[in-house]
Amino acid sequence: MNEEQAARRKLEVTRQVALHIEKMKRPYILAKRYDWEGFRKFFSKHKDLLDKRIDLHHSTAFHYAAHCGNPEMYREMIEWVGEGDIKRVLRLQDDMGNTPLHEVAFTGEVEMTKSILEHEEEAGSDQYQALIEMRNNLGETPVYRAAALGKTDLLSFFLEDLQLDPNIHFHRDDKMSILHTTVIDQFFGPSLSLYLSHHFMHVHT
């Protein structure tokens, strides 16, 4: 490839990036306005963009929709993805390493979590363990994130309903435990304190 061809290729790449940014501006604005119905309608007409980045943080439609509070809408959007592609889409990470499930853990939405795990099972994954155990750049699983943010209902779902092993989830890569994180982040209310202490003691007995 000569210099002229290289310059043309670079120009074309720049043009395509600019077109993509312009196209994704609409769902970005809709999400920031919490216009989730408009967000849903946009992607119903542009299903090919569901796994594409919406912003500079590499967030996709599924990262944003995790905050919509509507499990039925989330299920519908996942169903728009080809059956063979669901597993990949559910594992897409933003620039902080967060998957859509990490984002749902941030909201504490139990039903939304179920909508993701239902499709994970359908994709033939091993009891959704691989997805739940994915860690972000801080070494946090969705379970860790739910506990650190004080989402007791979701934490109860993970530990009691799904019977997940706290040994796997109650530490980060830097060895910071759930108890340390909740104290630092000041989410350590009395009920959460007792709940985490019980499970933390279980981990170390």
Automatic annotation (TrEMBL):
* Membrane-topology annotation of the record: Peripheral membrane protein
- List where in the cell it is found: Cell membrane
Q: Name one Pfam family in it.
A: Ank_2
Under InterPro entries, the record lists: Ankyrin_rpt (IPR002110), Ankyrin_rpt-contain_sf (IPR036770)
Q: Please state the protein's primary subcellular location.
A: membrane
Cellular-component GO terms for this entry? plasma membrane
| PANTHER family documented for this protein | NO MECHANORECEPTOR POTENTIAL C, ISOFORM D-RELATED, PTHR24121:SF29
**Record-given protein name:** Ankyrin repeat-like protein
Organism source for this protein? Vigna unguiculata
